[in-house]
Amino acid sequence: MPSAIVLHRAGPPENLKFEPVAVGAPLPGEIRLRHTAVGVNFHDTYVRSGLYQTLALPGVPGIEGVGIITELGSNVKHLNVGDRVAYMYRGYGAYSEERVLPAEVAVPVPAGIDDEVVAAIFLKGLTTWVLVHEVYAVKPADWVLVHAAAGGVGSLLCQWASHLGARVIGTVGAEHKMELARRYGCSHVIQYRQEDFVTRVKEITGDEGVQVAYDAVGKDTFMGSLACLAPCGHLANFGQASGPVPPFEVSALFTKSNSLSRPSVFQHLRTAEKLHAAAAALFKGLNDGVLYPGHIATFGLADAAQAHRELESRSRQGSVVLKI
Question: Sorted alphabetically, which CDD domains does this protein's record hold (predicted)?
């Protein structure tokens, strides 16, 4: 019998238990998948802690993975047994050796990209594509602010925005991450614990501000990110690593005619056509060397608790993956 990580009650990482689970045959329109690698995301830590109460307990967390198809349900015509596929799925269940999954969310992975890289970059890369192409279409010479510039999504944002010709300002929380952020394409890097990032952004941009700020930190940086925006600038808040953003007056956006979004990659890529187009762009970016996944910390599936501690560590850099 295959095993999985089961969360019986919300709380600390120790609540992630490695247990045998039953996996049935795929129903019509489904596939059975043998995982080779699973991505670990901040979303998973929010689910585990209880901040997000979106997983019915007991349940298997995890929203992305890569693996080999071992069985097809009826009516699945576009995939084959033995195909290597990646997916992101709001139905959870990724922290497992094997699982059943809707075939429509599976995307074939081209040869030449390692499973660990796919698991490290798939959801983050698709999120990045959405942020720089749909939430705000980054243009040459735009000023772009990226918080957590050495992190998983942050590093990809810096690379993709820089590739599109933007001038990227990155913030990091530690001195040793500054060179990493520059390597990922930042023209300016701010160590926000040493200096006020709002003041520095205004200095760097000649008091113009940035056309877009990408903020996954949340509570600690949100109001500062708003203050950094240029007239008609946009703030994309797509995470809350420091905690939820407190309520604020929407009229605060009026003075500079700013806009705000809280984007969901699942909504932006809700059709198979858009999902496959974004995935193709992501895989092309990897193959062309536009995107580099950076450091990948790997753990065994049974060590998911330690993987969560690593992800939540302030000293962490890059992505975290469970290798099956």
Answer: QOR2 (cd05286)
